[in-house]
Amino acid sequence: MPLLSKIIDSKIESWAILVRKDQAAAEVLTGGVKDLKSLRDIPLNKSEQLVMIPYAQIRERGYEVFEDNTPLRVMEISKREEISEDSLIELLPDFSPNVEISGFDIPDAEYERSVQAVIRDEIGGGEGANFVIRRDFIAVANLEGSNTHRLALTLLRKLLVNERGAYWTFAIVTPGQILVGASPERHISVKNGVTTMNPISGTFRHVKGNPDPLDFIDFLGNQKEVGELFMVVDEELKMMSEICSSGGYIHGPYLKQMSRLTHTEYLLRGHTDLDVRDVLLRTMFAPTVTGAPMENACTIIKKYEKRPRGYYSGVLALISPNDQGSHDLDAPILIRTAQISEDGAIRISAGATLVRNSDPHSEALETLSKASGLLSAFGFIEDKRAVRANGKADAEPVQLDSIPEVQAALARRNRSLAEFWLQEQAPKPIAALAGKKVLIVDFEDRFTTMIGHQLRHLGLEVDIVRWNSYDHAVAEKYDLLLAGPGPGDPENITDVRIAAVHKVVRARLKSAKPLLAVCLSHQVLSLVMGLRLEKLPAPRQGVQLEVPLQGRLLTIGFYNTFTAKFGALPEGVVADFDGATGDVFGLNGPGFSSVQGHVESVLSKDGLRALELLTLSSLGLSS
Q: Residue 41 and residue 329: Cα distance in Å, rounded?
């Protein structure tokens, strides 16, 4: 193994060693490195490219971000070797680095206060369904008698020995930027056009060393954990609906069992014809490390985090030419990863997904567990598990997914989900809707991509326009205007985006042309119709309800903090509402319909039928 020997002897400046799931051997790579400004600048040629994408690259989507100097870096692979994982472990250096532990940069109490503020002010203020706020564990390795190359190699060895279940385990060394990690989560892969995403959420800590099956079955029934996973599935289906002409469909749920944590996960699959660089651009970044809706999540991250993320929550991407004349892509999320500087400073970032019913103390513990998994695998803190002489964990833990009760609990999760998203979707046009043209206005919630996909499935022609590019004269040429959802307080017209929702809804009503208003736009329509709005006692973020809609009882998913209350309405306008609470779930009038819920969500078991009824009603057509 001459290439690996040179790396071990520190004779190569830039290199990578990858151990990827489903690959028969570890890959040892080297090549020239260059820094780029844009993902579109990544060269696609006959060489493989290993790309390091920092979180700040989200600026390419126009989202807010803490700027830093972390580069978008590409290694053009010129040499590669393959070696078995066992042989790699034998050859890698094995020593215990002298490390000074500083701990988290944000103490528990301060982090918990931030969690409380996000739940109260952001989720409670209608700014989104969930947000991921991280903190950093800091340590410094004494490099006397060694160097960062050797440190990276021994840390990689320790991960290969002590961790299991990772999607990628890797060490990447380039000038000034060193990454060593064991990421559990695929962000996205493309192989001959087949696209796969892997939303992972819900974290079960192995507090007793090995997982307790009874405790885990209780965990699977925890509604906070269940809802957290469904919300990120919705977010990644938004991305799949944008990059895959046939949308995406769900496989799972599955378990991602690692040494110290077990996660629940789904696989989403579809087919794309896009250039892999466009795939990366349109899927920056995973909701499991940012939140939802994505654009506002980036704003909240900038507001609450104290410093840039560097590579944390970005992605690695291996781009390879395929035999179809295009390129394949394999891209894990950069989590459970140490960012190491040339002076030996080590930063391990860990975040928690904050939802409406999060417990601040538990979320702080989750970040500790995520960081501790890497720290104990590196040998920086004590690992209480017994080990054998060969350095591996003493007893193989029970495989949770082999337990019948666990399998049954996982299978039950899909019973409440929309069948539409659980299978491949061939178009099934409705004769009355075929050829109708719809313009969807996006108010910074990409649920609009899922709505658009479902409307195309029903036979309509769909265009989507961002709110600040909306042109009323152009909109008048469409058979139907769908005013979409978005974050925020619908009565806060000092916000230019909220003011735009009011302008769009009022202009369409004035023109007397068909309108369908969803969620935020439904709330604005309710105000225009003279109803009052109230903030809900508890936000309905990721909540499934059976509600009256279009004369039927339908099961719909909700993501709302505000609700319209039933009251006097103009002549000819009818409301679907809850007789006990007065919550208005939909309005119907001459040339318009609306819905508070998200009929496009994976939580909307009757969503496609609801969308069909709403669209027909808005257009004045019979069902």
A: 16
